Amino acid sequence: MPGGGSNAPPNRAETLEQRLSFIKMMGGETFKTAVRAVTDVCREVLAESGFTSADVSWLIPHQANDRIIKAVGDRLQIPADRCVVNIDRYGNTSAASIPIALDEYVRAGKIKRGDLILFTAFGAGLTWARPW
Questions:
Q1: Mean pLDDT for the chain?
Q2: Which one, of 9, 8, 67, 81, lies nearest residue 38 by Cα?
């Protein structure tokens, strides 16, 4: 939020006209940061585990944005038919998105014993971390 405080109080005409007291999202930067961070950490985890993207049966990412999911899949060279996407049906279900997607695919019989599943997420404030 660029406005507020004593420099641009919300009751000042110019603050209102310029909409400075409203939250502004930097969508392009958010997209680039999320795709880069998720892709990098997935590559790192796969390499340290002795796997490659070709070994991944299913990529189950946090369902925040369809474009992010597709971009990560493309960068990891995981075909779209192995990237789980359900945001179009349920929306962003926050921390529940990965468990919901996993349950959906298990119940549908798509995930089989022995499949290598790559889970990846990022969250509020663009937080992400390695699992160890």
A1: 90
A2: 67
